[in-house]
Specification:
The protein is mainly α. It is built from six helices and no strands. Helix 2 runs antiparallel to helix 6. The longest helix has 12 residues. It is globular and about 40 Å long.
Amino acid sequence: ASQSADAQKPQLDYEFFKTRVEPIFLKRRSADHARCYVCHQIKIHTGGPLSLQTLLHGMTFWTEEQSRTNFETVSKLVVPGDPSSSLLLRKPMSPEAGGLSDTHQGGWQFASEDDPDWKNIKAWVMGQKAAGSPAP
C-alpha cells in the first residue's frame, strides 16, 4: 500500500523549479524585504535547511550544477502534492493567511495564496511540469 501511495505523489520537476521557482529566490519582492538569497546563501545560512548555493563572482544566476544542488536542497522543504505541509510555502507566509512567518526571521514574503510567486511554488509542489520536461 505504501508503494502505491508513493506512486501517486507528484514528482517535482527540475525544469519547472529552475525556470519558475529558483528565480524567486533572487527577486526583490518588496522594499521591506531583502531577496531570499541575501539571507539564505550557504555562506551566510550555513546548516540551515534553505541554504542556497553562492553565486559565482559576476554571475546573476546559478550554474547548472548549482541549480541542481539547489533543487535537491529545496525539494527537502516540500511535500509533493501537499502545499499545506510544505515549509517552503508556509514559513514565509503571513500568519493571517495560515503561514508560519512568525518563526521566519525574514518576516512574511507572501501576504496570501494569491501572490503569483507563491502560486508558482505551489504549482511546482503539485507536480506541474515545465514545457519540454521529460515524462516521468
